[in-house]
Amino acid sequence: MKTRSSNTWSNWAGNQTSNPLSIKKPRNEQEVVDIVKEAKKRGLKVKVVGSGHSFTGIAVTDEVLISLDEIVDIRDVDFENSTVRVGAGIKLCDLNPILQRSGLALPNLGDIVYQSISGAISTSTHGTGLEFKTIAEAVCGMRIVDGEGSVVECDTQQNSEILHAARVGLGALGVITEVTIQCVEAFNLHAVEEILPIGEVTNNFDHWSTTTDHIEFFWMPNTDKALLKRNTRTLEEPLRPRNKRHALKRRWNRFKNEEIKQNFLFGAMNHLGKIAPPLVPKLNSMVAGENGRAEYITTSYEVFASPRRVRFYEMEYAVPVESGIEAFQRVVQLIGDLDHYISFPVEYRVLGKDSIPMSTASDRDSAFIAVHVFRNTSFDKYFQGVEKIMADYDGRPHWGKLHFQNHETLSKIYPQWETFQNVRGLMDPLGIFSNPYLDKVLGPLP
User: Fold this and answer.
1) 9, 95, 107, 255: which one has the fewest Cβ atoms less than 10 Å from its Cβ?
2) CATH 3.30.465.10 domain extents, the chain
3) Looking at the domain covering 188-397, what would its CATH class be?
4) Could you give the C-alpha distances from 377 to 144, 258, 274, 407, in angstroms and in order?
5) Which residues contact 178 (CB under 8 A, 6 or more apart)?
6) CA-to-CA separations, 56 to 11, 119, 268, in angstroms, rounded
7) Dihedral (CA of 8, 10, 15, 20) sign
8) Domain at 74-185: CATH code
9) Computed over its alpha carbons, how large is the radius of gyration of the chain?
10) 78-137: per-residue pLDDT in tens?
């Protein structure tokens, strides 16, 4: 008989909770091995959590939960080959400044950096830019503890078929303890951010996406405005303030935009909109603001990511890039037909294809459409409507974000589905790393 402990775990958004029998925080790989072997001996399942930033139940378990928060060391920086080996639990927000001081950077990043490196790659987290790929694409080596408690080392030379699948492994293949990342020379981004009419953005976006390194837009529902972000890679140095007074003013303006406007005021408006829904269109118009433009140069990771302190629930779908704007416009129509207002923006990004079996951009250039609702807000009707639209384009849901699909539907839209399942059977034949979410989206192991 299993004895229930008082351990409680919850994800960042608060929509996934569990009460594991035990929560383990191993300090090194050997302790991970011992935990897995003991769980196997006792017939228990094991799940791993990074920062808990997934909205799905991908890390949920009532048995053994492993946190990687103690495995966060920088193990090696190979300046000749521009690679770095790190403990799998290191968070992107901690890794990025270290790489910068070493003259290196990750090739691409998403707009949230609270995730651990292992969690980000395992769920196919991505940034934007047709000439660039998911974060997982930069992984060139891993160490994984499999379902037998054995350490599997994989790179392009040894166990390459495991690396091929494990870069986006959904936590189904084992416990990642170490990741080797192919970095690039540190670079800055020349950022241009503009509030523009949504029609102008959608009419020109496909052209802009082929002439801009990194591009995305955010449309505020019930308005005709969108925030367009265009970022160009550069080695040009950031503009330095002329004096201390200008430096303080620049820091204040950035704090005012990122913390006060994007977080405090936006959060307050969402609380108000929840109390008085008819105010949402007016509040959205205030968030969208008037026509405006900001232009600056700074380090890549500071441009890619923004602080996110207002908690929400999210769904994101990847569709073929040539169908992206059409799918977005159908989402706009859906929002207009809903019987309630939406207070969070719709995000639109594009990304180049890769060859990773379970990557949402596997084998096709993709457009990503993300929809959000304020935390503790009903989302079923909205998200199910969006998912129905995406199904018309063989849309693929982000593994860490909310969706309603299962392995029967998902297996039809991933060309390397069987390749992944074969590696899954090799790495975890007894299903030690399975849970209800994985059983639903991958199917149970034979």
Assistant:
1) 255
2) 74-185
3) alpha beta
4) 38, 24, 8, 27
5) 29, 75, 85, 86, 87, 88, 141, 142, 143
6) 9, 13, 26
7) negative
8) 3.30.465.10
9) 22
10) 999 999 999 999 999 999 999 999 999 999 999 888 899 999 999 999 999 999 999 999
